[in-house]
Design a protein that fits this description.
CATH superfamily of the largest domain: HUPs
CATH class of the largest domain: Alpha Beta
Largest sheet: 5 strands, parallel
Number of domains: 4
Strand content: 5-15%
CATH architecture of the largest domain: 3-Layer(aba) Sandwich
Number of strands: 15
Distance between the termini: 35 Å
RNA sequence: GCGCCCGUAGCUCAGCUGGAUAGAGCAUCGGCCUUCUAAGCCGGCGGUCGCAGGUUCGAGUCCUGCCGGGCGCGCCA
């Protein structure tokens, strides 16, 4: 619809240019808006206002000239000038009524487009370190990333989703020894637990599994493990130095093979748990990309060489630095530490270069907002490597706070005191969790009201929308019970009966859906869809209360059943994109 | 101190690339169930869009400064 209005205006403007009234304007996007108010028609364009200045004439006058050259269209009833020079379009009811057949026919495909055809987009999200189960903070990025990917798919993009697994580095070593120490304790060894170790209950669980499967293969006397180690924090030492020496001790005593075995075992256990949690949350990834694999095949050293050859690296204080300030970063960054180890940043440069080399037209990273300071250095690195940083979009997601009984739920990652994503799902359910996570703009802090998410009432937008869907399914059951029969074809000739204001309002809303999907996809804004579905449900509930659908007159009945089935399709399609179910009964 | 995000109704938030009288939910007040699920509908109340300037035909939207809140500023990831 919008596209048609746009085409009409384009036509008129080209005619004006041909007539010499307007100078050709190279990159003009013709604005077409939905009328905010019924009195402003269905669509409105301020194009005359926008062009008046460069055309050096009165906007209303220009609007008149546009209007004179506007081709006729079967969907437009009239077009007129209003206010300072808006062109308002009033559509025929028939244009809306025809939508019923269109939606019924398109079914699952209604709202999809080919906007992103030929575009290969990668969406990388969650990518939480596998050092523990996912918590509610990760949940928002997960829900958001998944819906962004869905929206891009719906608009015809070829989407590859990916989880980057940080399976190399010190944190993983700390994790491995944490499990090993718990394992030793389970074996009966007495030894203290490091202040900097991972303390969550899941560590013990993995340690117990390790013991079950491998017996005492990794057992060593506690005294040997502890011999001559520096003091830990409680004893007045440094917890970082202490944990590093425990890691070193583990490597020495266990030997490379056994240490690596524990390391891999722990990693696999946690990745499996994360994958499980996400699956239960309705999220799966096409690819799990290992940081270690990047290092193993030398991609990190290669990229450092490339930067060095291009003259972007220098040595200082024993470390190797990338001159990112040359590309608008606020300070230079270390890529190889004094101890010879590459930094996380170095891996990330290699990873991002790899993404680009895989041929994606666009690369999207979904990060927690606390990583925003990291964006300039990644862009800088890409630029230094002759990759176009404009092809990278980093979407920052603000954190979510949980509220229960009006009180903020305290959380701290330290000492394992956080609410896991699994707990959240068990408490409020997958559907409410998915919806609540994306119902706010992503750069807005989210107050997640647990009580509201659980409420089975109209206060809860998830139920409100699902209820609309269930009501329609119920009407269809009643249709059969009352001996009426309906199929899509019955509505096609009947839609002319849809003349009530509630019906036209609902039709207008349905016509908006493709535009909402497009805007939500291009702007990476799932919340737009959430708001839209709420409004659609509202229009439906209003209609439901105002009119009986199962009337005796077959034609009217078939028209109405067509309309509500079209509504059901849009509700279902929209909810599916959000990862929320569309139940037939509630 | 510097950088990024945010500041809209009592509360939680929308407001599309600046566009015509600023919207929704909750809360509050008042109506609607012998008819397709009242997990619903309708109506009332409620805002100097943080403050002050600027840009222009037009600013909640863009620019500058200030005030208030969040986050970041590691040879951590």
């Amino acid at each position: 619809m919008k596209a048609e209005i746009h085409a009409l205006l384009q036509h008129a403007l080209e005619a004006l240019i041909n007539d010499g009234v307007l100078a050709a304007i190279p990159e003009l996007t013709i604005p077409v808006e939905r009328g905010r108010d019924d009195s402003h028609g269905d669509f409105a364009s301020p194009v005359a206002l926008a062009l008046a200045r460069s055309a050096r004439c009165n906007p209303r006058q220009l609007a008149t000239q546009i209007l004179e050259r506007l081709p006729t269209s079967p969907i437009v009833e009239k077009a007129e000038i209003a206010g300072p020079g808006f062109i308002n379009f009033y559509l025929r009811d028939a244009a809306y009524q025809a939508l019923v057949g269109e939606i019924l026919q398109a079914d699952d495909n209604y709202g999809t487009s080919k906007l992103g055809a030929k575009q290969r987009v990668q969406v990388e999200y969650v990518s939480a370190n596998p050092t523990g189960p996912l918590h509610v903070g990760h949940g928002r990025g997960a829900a958001y990333g998944a819906v962004v990917a869905n929206l891009l798919r719906a608009t015809g993009h070829e989407v590859a989703s990916e989880y980057y697994v940080n399976d190399a580095g010190r944190q993983m070593d700390i994790l491995a020894v944490s499990v090993w120490l718990r394992y030793l304790q389970s074996c009966g060894e007495t030894l203290p637990f490091p202040a900097n170790g991972y303390r969550g209950a899941y560590i013990q669980t993995i340690a117990d599994q390790l013991q079950n499967e491998h017996g005492e293969e990794f057992r060593l006397p506690g005294s040997t493990v502890l011999e001559a180690l520096p003091a830990d924090e409680p004893a007045g030492g440094d917890k970082e130095i202490y944990i590093d020496s425990v890691i070193e001790r583990a490597r020495t005593l266990l030997g490379k093979r056994r240490y690596q075995l524990i390391h891999s075992y722990v990693l696999a256990a946690l990745v499996e748990e994360i994958r499980d949690d996400l699956l239960n949350f309705g999220i799966s990834f096409e690819n799990w990309y290992s940081e270690r694999s990047l290092m193993d095949r030398g991609a990190v050293t290669t990229v450092i060489e490339r930067l060095r050859d291009a003259g972007h690296l220098y040595e200082r204080e024993g470390a190797l630095w990338f001159r990112s300030t040359e590309f608008d970063d606020e300070k230079d960054r270390v890529v190889v530490r004094e101890n010879g180890q590459t930094t996380y940043f170095a891996s990330d440069i290699a990873y991002h270069l790899d993404k680009f080399e895989r041929g994606f037209t666009r690369v999207i990273d979904v990060w927690g907002a606390d990583h925003h300071g990291y964006v300039p250095r990644v862009r800088a690195a890409l630029q230094a490597l002759q990759a176009d940083p404009a092809r990278l979009d980093v979407l920052l997601v603000q954190f979510a706070n949980l509220y229960r009984g009006g009180e903020k739920v305290a959380m701290s990652t330290r000492s394992g005191e956080f609410v896991t994503l699994r707990q959240l799902r068990e408490e409020v359910g997958k559907n409410a969790a998915r919806f609540f996570y994306v119902m706010r703009k992503s750069d807005q802090h989210l107050d997640f009201d647990l009580d509201l998410a659980k409420a089975e009432s109209n206060d809860n937008p998830v139920y409100y929308i699902q209820y609309a869907h269930a009501r329609i399914a119920s009407v269809m059951r009643q249709t059969n019970e009352k001996g009426f029969r309906w199929q899509a074809a019955d509505s096609l000739d009947a839609v002319g009966e849809l003349n009530e204001s509630h019906e036209l309002a609902l039709l207008r809303r349905l016509s908006l859906y493709p535009e909402v999907i497009e805007a939500a996809a291009l702007g990476y804004e799932p919340h737009q869809l959430a708001y839209y579905l709420r409004e659609l449900a509202n229009d439906f509930h209003t209609y439901y209360n105002a009119h009986i659908f199962l009337v005796p007159e077959a034609v009217l009945r078939n028209a109405r059943l067509g309309l509500i089935n079209a509504t059901r399709i849009v509700l279902r399609n929209g909810l599916a994109l959000l990862g929320v179910s569309a139940p037939d009964t509630m």
